[in-house]
Structures are given as C-alpha cells and as structure tokens.
C-alpha cells in the first residue's frame, strides 16, 4: 500500500491500477510510431550490411586469391584467416558477425511488434474510468485536466486512444455482456480517498450472469417451441412458428454471444432442423394414431 497522501504520485497511481480485480486498468501506450521507426532504422542497417557483404563477395570471386576463395566456402578456413588483422577474411568475419547480431535484433523487433499488434484495445468503460481517475474528474472542453495524478508528459499518456493497449485478455463484447456490465453492482472506491467513487466489479461474476441468462433463454426458445407446436394443428401455422422461433434464435445468438457469422449460421441451421424434425415426427405419429374412417 502506498503512503498516506501519495495518491498523486507514481506509487499511488500504480497502487490504484493494481487494485482492479480483472486488471482492466492496465492500459498503456504502444508507441506505434516509435516502433515503426525503430524497425525502419534496423531495416536500413541490415540493407547496408547486405550491400557490404555483396561488395566483399565481388572482391573475392572474380579476382580473389585461392586462399581467400577457400575462406569464402570453408568455415574453418575463414576462422583461421580471420585471425590475421586487416585481412579480407577478417573483414568478411566482421561483416558476418554484424549481420548476425543485427538480424537477431531486427527479427526480435518484428516478433515483439507482431505480438503487440495482436493485443486488443482497452474496453471503453475501463478506459473512461481510468482516465477519469487519473485526470481527477471530467476534462472540460478546454482540455485542462482538473487534478491530474501525474505530472509532466506522463499525465496525458491516455489521451491518444488509438495508441493504447490493454494487458487484460479480451472479454466478451457482445451486447448482452456490455448491458450487464453497465448495470452490474460493484464495489465503489471511497471518494474520501481521492478515488472519485469509481465502481469496480469482477468480470467473472458478469460472465456467470450472462451465461445463466443465455442458458435460460436457449431453454425457453426450445421448450417454448415444442409446447407451442402441441397446441397448433394447422401446417401453415406451424411453418410460421418455425420461421418466428428461428428468427428469434438467430437474433439472440447474434446479440447475446460473440459468435462469428459462420457460427451463427451453423447454430441457426441446427436449431431449425430440430424444429422441423419435431414437427414432422409429430405429424407422422398423429396420422398413425388417428386413421381416417374406412381404413
């Protein structure tokens, strides 16, 4: 815990950020511009080293000595000749070492940037709450922060929303989950502690509530359809019910889950197939149990 009265410091800010049970406040800059520039610089250095190796090869093969050509195709010979100072083999070995080190640095930068690019942007609610606390309240149109917790350039590190990344794994972002998060009761930070009543809740409880709601609705759509078919005898009415229930099911899957389009199509087709099979079996059993007169 930070010392009393240290909320407006790096110690206080880091303590507040770490208090979130789901770590959604772990929002930081990606520095995409600097990352791209760094990779460009590394790429230019490698281009120069590539050209340097080509110049060495041009010196070796057309007019180079047999000894130097042996060094160019035999690693052990290259190591031996590279021990001689100011030799062509020494220059070749230096270039090879530089390429190896710079290429490793370049590839590591590419891999790291790929991983960072795959990270998700922070959730709007978490970003707004974190900004609200760090700025000391709502920022007016004039742009002056009321009571920023950090000074210098650090006080505006959350201003560029396009250059932010959340270290928290992405949560479900369907409409139902967002609605539940908005109204879900949580623990409020005490305003007397300088935390402006920020509300916190555990994402696990939201996920559980959404799962229960989705399960209940799925059961209602299936059981309700079956019960409804038992009271309807007209084939046209049954077709209308199949269309209505299938449409509601597709909408519920699209709204209440983060399923992709292909998954929505597959689930809807399976649901419609179940209803069609149930209706068909019901009609067949009815015709067998109630034969027409004269049979």
Automatic annotation (TrEMBL):
<feature type="transmembrane region" description="Helical">
    <location>
        <begin position="205"/>
        <end position="229"/>
    </location>
</feature>
<feature type="transmembrane region" description="Helical">
    <location>
        <begin position="264"/>
        <end position="282"/>
    </location>
</feature>
<feature type="domain" description="DUF6594">
    <location>
        <begin position="12"/>
        <end position="276"/>
    </location>
</feature>
<dbReference type="Pfam" id="PF20237">
    <property type="entry name" value="DUF6594"/>
</dbReference>
<keyword id="KW-0812">Transmembrane</keyword>
<keyword id="KW-0472">Membrane</keyword>
<protein>
    <recommendedName>
        <fullName>DUF6594 domain-containing protein</fullName>
    </recommendedName>
</protein>
<keyword id="KW-1133">Transmembrane helix</keyword>
<feature type="transmembrane region" description="Helical">
    <location>
        <begin position="235"/>
        <end position="257"/>
    </location>
</feature>
<dbReference type="InterPro" id="IPR046529">
    <property type="entry name" value="DUF6594"/>
</dbReference>
């Amino acid at each position: 815990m930070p010392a009393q009265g240290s909320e407006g410091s790096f110690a206080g800010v880091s303590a507040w950020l770490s208090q979130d049970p789901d770590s959604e406040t772990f929002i930081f800059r990606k520095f995409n511009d600097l990352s791209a520039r760094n990779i460009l610089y590394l790429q230019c250095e490698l281009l120069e080293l590539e050209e340097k190796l080509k110049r060495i090869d041009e010196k070796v093969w057309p007019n180079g000595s047999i000894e130097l050509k042996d060094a160019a195709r035999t690693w052990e010979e290259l190591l031996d000749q590279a021990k001689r100072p100011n030799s062509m083999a020494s220059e070749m070995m230096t270039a090879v070492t530089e390429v190896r080190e710079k290429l490793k640095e370049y590839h590591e930068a590419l891999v790291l940037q790929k991983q960072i690019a795959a990270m998700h942007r922070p959730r709007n609610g978490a970003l707004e709450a974190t900004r609200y606390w760090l700025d000391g309240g709502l920022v007016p149109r004039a742009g002056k922060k009321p009571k920023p917790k950090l000074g210098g350039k650090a006080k505006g590190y959350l201003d560029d929303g396009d250059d932010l990344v959340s270290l928290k794994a992405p949560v479900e972002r369907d409409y139902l989950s967002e609605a539940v998060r908005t109204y879900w009761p949580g623990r409020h930070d005490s305003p007397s502690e300088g935390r402006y009543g920020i509300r916190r809740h555990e994402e696990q409880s939201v996920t559980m509530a959404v799962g229960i709601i989705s399960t209940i609705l799925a059961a209602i759509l299936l059981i309700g359809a079956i019960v409804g078919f038992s009271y309807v005898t007209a084939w046209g009415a049954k077709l209308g019910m199949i269309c209505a229930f299938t449409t509601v099911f597709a909408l519920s899957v699209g709204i209440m889950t983060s399923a992709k389009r292909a998954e929505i199509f597959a689930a809807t087709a399976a649901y419609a197939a179940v209803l069609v099979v149930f209706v068909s079996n019901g009609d067949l059993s009815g015709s067998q149990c109630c034969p027409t007169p004269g049979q």
